[in-house]
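Deliverable D5.2: sample structural annotation.
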Amino acid sequence: MKSLVFIVKEVSEIIHTNQTYVYTLIKTGLLPALKLGSYKIRKETLMRFLEE
């Protein structure tokens, strides 16, 4: 995980789930993301999410 931001597909691969579930996490506010064309999730945000 060298990247500082991830796209939804990368997050789904990291947490072993499908992209639809990642979008659900984003839309419900459980996984904060930036909308820059496509959604981007910061590495530190993902790490904090995984710790919970």
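Annotation notes: The radius of gyration is 10 Å. The chain has one domain: 5-51.
The annotation will be released with the project's public dataset once the embargo ends.
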